Amino acid sequence: MTKIVPVVMSGGSGTRLWPLSRKTHPKQLHALVTEQSMVQETVARVTGSAGAFDFAESMVVLNETQHDLARLQLEALGVMPSHFVVEPMGRNTAPVAAVAAELVVREYGDDALILLLPADHHIRNVEAFHDAIAEAAKLAAGGHIVTFGIMPDGPETGYGYIRRGESLGGGFTVSAFTEKPDRETAQGFLDDGRYYWNAGIFLFGASSVRREMEIHCPRVAKACRAALEKAVTEDRQVVLDAASFEACPSISFDYAVMESTEQAAVVPADIGWSDVGAWGALWEIGEKDSDGNVVRGDVELVDAHNSYVFSSGQKVGVIGVEDLVIVATEDSVLVTHRQQCQDVKTIVNRLKDDGRLDLL
After folding, report:
1. What is the 3-state composition of the chain as percent helix, strand, coil, each rounded to the nearest 5?
2. What pLDDT shows up at residue 23?
3. Which of 1, 36, 4, 30 is nearest to 17 (CA)?
């Protein structure tokens, strides 16, 4: 039976979910959709057997400020990763793939398949996700570098898009990648019918991705190999060598490999996916009351409609509002229109400029 090694990327800071998401306690370590944190949800959905394949123990890649809390959460879940790979500094997703490939080849051999996935995404239909993985595994075993294409349900401007090419059985070749388009272009993609949202989830053979990275981003491959060779390993924790990793270019896997390789493939995935990239996404996927509100925490609503209200502790009262996001934490309050949730990063940047690192 096919063995797939999940590699969970958990190093991000989730700035668009400020004020809850902070550098040392980012969104993936919060329970935002269910009673489990997002990293707990992610590891749980790639654990055990899924019919056509088995998941090996996960590897979780994160930074040192997040390690202790992530470890405690996964211990509480009763599912411990084989390794916590600690990055000395952020270097985007291509280096994660390079380190994962080296580590998986060392542990499982050249033929092992790697599922590279973010820790901060919500997937409602786990069974459909496993079905998509089974299709992708067939292509990955043949040398393809597979991405998962989410069936779009609107002209979303916050996601990248993938255009499918020729049929490959359970998937397609990739004809083109497009970064976040304007609304008119996104609507054109939707009307065309050949485009998917780019979820940033990948499946590939360990030896296949090593070969492609040596061709298309050799500096990344070399630096990551050195960082792993000089890493300090103790009690499932692999701390990458700082000097070697710092020399690695900061680049995404999409740019470094997917947009250059001739082996790119896409498998359609209708899985109830959300990247939970902003507060508005939590309203969209949340369970709504009769007035269209989503509430988490100690909240009282009067004549409120189509709003998302979150409190991490104190009582929050909301009267006579519509289409708002209100988030109250111990030291900060955010109020924004749901359609402007993507602009929260502007507040974060202003706090940086003002030196308010205590709020970040």
Report:
1. 35, 30, 35
2. 86
3. 30
Walk me through the domains of the chain, giving residue ranges and CATH numbers: 2-273 (3.90.550.10), 279-359 (no CATH)
For the full predicted model, state whether its pTM sits above 0.70: yes
For 296, which DSSP code?
E
206-216 helix and 218-229 helix, angle to the nearest 10 degrees? 120
Which positions of the chain have pLDDT values less than 70?
A: 1
What is the DSSP-derived secondary structure letter of residue 330?
A: S
pLDDT of residue 158: 84
For 67, counting Cβ atoms within 10 Å of its Cβ (0-12 exposed, 13-18 middle, 19+ buried), the class is middle
Contact call for residues 19 and 331 (beta carbons, < 8 A): yes
Q: Radius of gyration of the chain from Cα atoms?
A: 20
| 130 phi, psi to nearest 5 deg | -65, -35
**Could you tell me the two tokens for 67?**
């390690």
Assigned token pair, 283: 């309203």
Contact 49, 72 (CB under 8 A): no
SS (H, E, C) 105-136: HHHHCCCCEEEEEECCCEECCHHHHHHHHHHH
Q: What's the pLDDT at 1?
A: 63
3-state secondary structure 196-209: EEEEEEEEEEHHHH
